[in-house]
Design goal:
The protein is an alpha/beta fold. It has 9 helices and 9 strands. The strands form 3 sheets. A 5-stranded mixed beta sheet has the order 3-5-6-4-9, sandwiched between helices. Strands 1-8 form a two-stranded parallel ribbon. Helix 3 packs parallel to helix 6, helix 4 crosses helix 5 and helix 8 runs antiparallel to helix 9. It is elongated, with a radius of gyration of 26 Å. It starts with a helix and ends with a strand.
């Protein structure tokens, strides 16, 4: 009985008019309804039970500094020193972005990143800024910056001697996110022909400043669960469409409802998008 049900539900047969029941319009509408209700319920659970159901996040200044200096050391460059004035400037910039609700280097009112650096009395000759949001760990932040030519140029520039970070949580552009601001600077002009300073391990400068970090370790990582459920569901439907296409072709069954190949291609593109692009953004 159970095998007959599975056959009727997942495989083309006379009992389902040679179309798996799971691919009928009524079944698809039911799955869409369940998906939408599930998303609403998970969003509500995340908001009300964040300690139990939420996204696992571990982004810290200590780790960001270490990874940034690791990249520089791999290129034979000196480590950057964590600077409290640049860290304060990064905090001011991040706070301003959350208050004004914008995602850009320059605010809609024209405020530039350099305004926040000057507010901290850091007399820079060179300065730069990297931004990131929506990442769940420090490694992915630095990796994304290093994969972008303009951000990588900042991280590996010989013009900079100091660095500052701020890691903040808040609502930006309508969604809760983790915002990372990275500020670079130097108060001295680069002297042509000068020898690089001796590399200073990150651990020697960490105790100077109270480091920011955002760590959230819920019992269930609902974002990860939601992603895996979505991937598994799409993969299942792709598999059903492929099996349906093979059986129909082999049996030479003619039916009005077709376009399986189009459906497979469309679902496969969505699946690739979820797998490859499910991460934060940088600026």
């Amino acid at each position: 009985m159970f095998l007959k049900f599975l056959h009727h539900f997942f495989l083309p047969h006379e009992s389902n008019n040679h179309r798996p029941k799971v691919l009928h319009h009524t079944s698809l509408m039911f799955f869409i309804f369940v998906f939408l209700v599930g998303q609403i319920m998970m969003g509500s659970a995340k908001a009300n039970f964040g300690d139990v159901l939420g996204a696992k996040i571990d982004v810290s200044v200590e780790r960001l500094l270490q990874l940034t200096n690791d990249e520089r050391q791999n290129k034979g460059l000196r480590s950057l020193l964590l600077n409290d004035k640049l860290s304060k400037a990064a905090f001011l910039k991040g706070t301003y972005m959350l208050q004004k609700n914008y995602w850009a280097h320059n605010a809609p009112d024209g405020t530039t990143p350099w305004v926040f650096i000057r507010q901290t009395k850091y007399d820079y000759v060179y300065a730069g800024e990297n931004l990131a949001r929506g990442f769940t760990n420090s490694s992915d932040v630095v990796k994304a910056w290093m994969e972008s030519p303009t951000h990588r140029d900042n991280m590996l520039s010989t013009n900079y001697k100091d660095i500052g970070f701020s890691v903040l949580e808040g609502k930006l552009l309508g969604e809760d996110t983790t915002l990372v601001v990275e500020m670079f600077g130097s108060t001295e002009p680069m002297v042509l022909g000068s020898q690089p300073e001796k590399t200073i391990p990150s651990k020697e400068v960490l105790p100077q400043i109270a480091l920011e970090k955002v760590i959230n370790t819920p019992v269930f990582d609902i974002s990860l669960v939601s992603r895996y459920v979505g991937i598994a569901t799409l993969a299942l439907f792709i598999f059903i469409f492929v099996i349906d296409l093979i059986i129909i072709e082999r049996r030479k069954i003619v039916r009005l409802v077709g376009h399986n190949l189009d459906h497979i291609t469309f679902l496969f593109m969505i699946l690739l998008f979820i797998i490859l692009f499910n991460r934060g953004s940088i600026l």
